Amino acid sequence: xxxxxxxxxxLDGELAEYRKKNNYFAVLGxxxxxxxxxxxxxxxxRNEAKTGRPFCGAAGRILDDLLLSINVPREDVYIxxxxxxxxxxxxxxxxxxxxLYAPFLDRQIDIIKPKILATLGRxxxxxxxxxxxxxxxxESISAAHGKMYDAFASYGAIKxxxxxxxxxxxxxxxxxxxxxxxxxxxxxx
Length: 189
Ligand code: URA
Known about the structure:
Layout lengths: L1 H8 L4 H8 L8 E2 L5 E5 L4 H6 L6 H12 L8 E4 L13 H18 L3 E5 L1 H10 L9 H4 L4 E5 L2 E8 L9 H12 L5
This protein binds uracil (URA).
C-alpha cells in the first residue's frame, strides 16, 4: 500500500497541483487491510484533504452512524474514494480524473481483497459496475441503491452494493433512513 501512496503523492495534474498549493494531503484510504467490506466514496472534501483521512467531516459522521447502526466498527472496514485528491470547491470529478486515479483504487481492491464493495454515490457506482462487467445492470442510483450484485474479482467471488452517498443524507432525514435500511444488507451478504 505504501507504494500506491507514494505514486499518488507523486502524480501530476490539476488536482495534484491544487493539493500542493494548499498543503493538502492525497487521501489514500483507511481501515483494516483484512476488511471484508470496502466502502468507496467519490473524492476527499476539505476536511479530508487537510487531514489525509477519508470521510472525517459531516459525511463521515453520517457514515459512522450508519456503521454503528449495524454494529460494525469503523476499524474493521476499509474506506476509500475513487479520486484521491480534492477537486476544487468540491466539484464533481471529471472523467479524466476518474481515469487517472481509478488504477490506484484497482490496486487497493487487489491488495485488500474485500468480499463486498459498497459504493457511495453515483461516481463510484458507475466505475465499479463497469469494472466488474455489470454495465448491463447499470441504472440510476435511485433504482440501484441497496441491491446486491454478484461479480468476480481477480481473487474470487464478490458482492457489489451501490449505496447513496452519505453527504446526500446530511439535510435529508428520509434519505438517511433509506441508507440505514440499505446498510442492513451489509450484515447478511
Ligand atoms: N465525500 C467523499 O466522497 N469522500 C470523502 O472522503 C469525504 C466526503
